[in-house]
Sequence to fold (417 residues):
Amino acid sequence: MFNRSRRNLARWFTFSMGSILIAFAGVLYYVETVDELKKLDLLLYRKTRVMATNVKYNPQTDTTNLENVPLLGSNTRLLSTELVYARWYNTQKQLGQFFGSPGNEQLMLGSGLQTIKSDRPWIRQITLPVYQKQQLIGYLQIGTPLTSTQNNLAKLRLVLTIAVPISLGIIGIAGWVLAGIAMQPIRQAYSQLQRFTADASHELRAPLAAILTNAQVGLITPVRDGSPQLFRLEKITKLVESISTLVSNLLFLARHEGQFASESLQQLDLSNLLQQIARDYQTSAKEQGLNFTYDLPSQPIQVLAEPTLLTQAITNLLTNACKYTLAGGEVKLHLAEKLRQAIIEIEDNGIGIPEADLPHIFERFYRVDSERSRNTGGFGLGLAIVKQIIEAHGGKVTVSSQVDRGTTFTIKLPAQR
Ligand code: ADP
Fold:
């Protein structure tokens, strides 16, 4: 129970912190991408401006001289940045001089920045109109490979893909440790409560046994039949017997918490165990006017179990089936193996359990408040004990029921090969 809560706490902690971490990594990557592109665009813009200032325009002859333009003219210094092409378009957007690949004859766009992904590596391109004395004299277009930007981003991606899972692992471990620390006081409070229940039940046993013995001795001493003294002694005996059962059940619940270690369990044949229980039940069911049948496979079904406790769980369910079925009714015990699971079904056609009570009937001290249940004198601990025993064996117990139609309890236990 505590381990499940601890796992849940750790899982939610990892999930929430992990989501924040992944969102943070995403934002970081986005900001870095935008920043890298901005830096490159600024550089491209500066290069284009340097080139544009070297364009000479003669308004009389309406000609442009690109001799001094870096990359395009013969009379030039090379620009330091790696450019894959530089193109000059006239005012009609027709290609003039160019360096590197010529591109389109006709300039398609007006101006602006573009990433060309059709080429490998990707190319960042800028196209700018060039003015002289406020008159458009042509367009300059240059392109630079995005290799270094892509490399920087690939490096960042690599760092993030390594760092994020490692951080998630660290968060998971931290979550597990923190959940353990958070569970500590709850665990302590719970074990104190368990210890108190166990101690109180244990202490109550001795005085109850003494009262019972005294009452029984009183019953042996000769008294007149029907006398009030005899009636009182009988009543005391009955009450003490039922309180003793309650105390034993409480002690049982307090002592058998958690799942059994497999070394403490023994391999046993469930068909055989159920056969013995069924034989014992046949007579008591007959006495109550019930028709008790069982259907058990002839081949053995092996399970790892504590025989006394497993017998108690099945007996509790069979006792309930007989208790809550009217005379003339039927109680069936069925065993089968499916998908490496031993499946025990205890079915009756008795009074049934209302749907609203079904989710609660495995809780301690929960009793269905029906006319018939009230008269059976239980304490509502039988099913809590069944659940605790079956879960301690790594199994599961479920119920399906319809009022006035009957109830079926199903136990599933891991079968051994
Ligand atoms: P109790 O000692 O009262 O029988 P249990 O824990 O064994 O306590 O059962 C809890 C409640 O579940 C009972 O009060 C009863 O109303 C209901 N119940 C259990 N088994 C059956 C059954 N086979 N048919 C109808 N009701 C049942």
